[in-house]
Write a structure and sequence with these properties.
By secondary structure, the protein is an alpha/beta fold. Helix 3 packs across helix 4. It starts with a strand and ends in a 5-residue tail after the last helix. The strands form 4 sheets. A 6-stranded parallel beta sheet has the order 1-8-5-4-2-3, with helices on both faces. A two-stranded antiparallel ribbon has the order 6-7. It is built from 13 helices and 12 strands. The protein binds nicotinamide-adenine-dinucleotide. The site of nicotinamide-adenine-dinucleotide has 32 residues, from helix 2, helix 4, helix 5, helix 6 and helix 10.
């Protein structure tokens, strides 16, 4: 994993020396392709590498079987065989989608993750989870496929739209809540500097999150236990994404999800009301939502939560904090929550 202002230089060097002779298929979305993937393709071609670029329409609506099939059809036209490598250049939609294509193309070819959004840099590009959505269920189809490398070059964040940039802080805050109280306190001090996209502060935040995720995934690659803590805020968050047909961005949904699940934690794990206040306060300062919009149908959120993969024997289970920086070990790092409690927290439209 490379993280820093020169990560793209390292990527070019590594592709040239360590994947020689491969057909490099850059996969990118319609926003990121002209900004970052095309210049990268030109640079690689100038070095004599075999490079193709495959582009798909930007947005969560593209995380589908149809888009995956379209990319695969294009790979077939390009004559990509087992000698191909996929280079995913984009946000979390691209890293998930292109990663899944790589996982199944010819029973698996290498994927190189080049995250360009903050969500992808601090979370999606690392850890090997790839996938697409299916009939309203997030990430229902997918595979574990570890990246050949991850290259997080912070300079690409300069073109990321403000709303998408802010959304990334939901995953940054999550990383701190689940594993690092000092990082959380540091974030509280650095909000202004981070929002101003100061390079050094951003690098510290991204590197800290990558370190946290790498440690957790290193311990439990296939989510048999502790990796579940990375789902804090995501159980309700995925429900909100599905219930709003993805008009809420992933980061916004996770922020709201942490607000709701944090409240559940005050009832189930002894998470303090003061710390819930700090969590909501920090999310709010990053411009992220902490209250569920009144127009969101609670039943649709519950329906999605009932289908969550952590549930067992019809019991809803959540990854919940006991305090900032520490998650409840429970059974397999999840805690049972009665549906009645979740319904009442959602119905009160949890928030400040
Ligand atoms: N696999 C995992 O472990 C994991 C973890 C977290 C999130 N995710 C997934 O990631 C997705 C959300 O990621 P996201 O918020 O990055 O979504 P995204 O990929 O849709 O990117 C958000 C928007 O920013 C644009 N963009 C990205 N980088 C840009 C840049 N540098 N300049 C200009 N525009 C840029 C994209 O085109 C898009 O419009 C969700 O599907 C979520 O499920 C996966």
């Amino acid at each position: 994993v490379r993280c820093g202002p020169r990560a793209l230089d390292a990527l070019v060097r590594d592709l040239r020396t360590d994947l020689p002779g491969r057909l490099l298929v850059l996969v990118s979305d319609s926003n990121v392709a002209p900004l970052h993937a095309e210049p990268l393709a030109r640079r690689l071609r100038r070095l004599g590498l075999r490079v193709e670029l495959v582009c798909f329409p930007a947005g969560e609506a593209s995380k589908t079987r149809e888009t995956k099939a379209a990319i695969e059809d294009r790979l077939a036209e390009l004559g990509a065989g087992r000698d191909a490598a996929i280079v995913a250049v984009g946000g979390g939609v691209t890293t998930d989608l292109a990663g899944f294509v790589a996982a199944t193309w010819n029973r698996g070819v290498p994927v190189v993750q080049v995250p360009t959004s903050l969500v992808a840099m601090v979370d999606a590009a690392l850890g090997g989870k790839t996938g697409i959505n299916h009939a309203g269920a997030k990430n229902r189809l997918g595979a574990f496929h570890q990246p050949w490398g991850v290259y997080a070059d912070l300079s690409v964040l300069s073109t990321l739209p403000e709303a998408d940039f802010r959304a990334g802080f939901a995953e940054v805050v999550k990383s701190a809540v689940i594993a690092d109280a000092r990082l959380f306190a540091w974030l509280e001090e650095q909000v202004a500097s981070l929002i101003a996209r100061r390079a050094r502060t951003l690098r510290t935040a991204v590197a800290a999150c990558l370190g946290i995720k790498a440690r957790i995934v290193g311990e439990d690659e296939r989510e048999a236990g502790r990796r579940s803590i990375l789902n804090f805020g995501h159980t309700v968050g995925h429900g909100l994404e599905a219930a709003t047909t993805y008009t809420l961005s992933h980061g916004q949904a996770v922020a709201c999800g942490m607000s709701v699940e944090g409240e559940l934690a005050t009832r189930c794990t002894g998470f303090s009301v003061d710390e819930l206040g700090r969590l909501r306060g920090l999310l709010d300062r990053f411009g992220l939502p902490v209250a569920v919009d009144r127009r969101v149908p609670v039943e649709a959120v519950l329906e999605a939560v009932r289908g969550d993969k952590k549930n067992r024997d019809g019991q809803l289970r959540f990854a919940l904090p006991v305090r900032i920086g520490r998650m409840a070990a429970g059974s397999c790092w999840t805690v049972p929550v009665r549906e009645k409690l979740l319904r009442s927290v959602l119905a009160r439209r949890a928030g400040v």
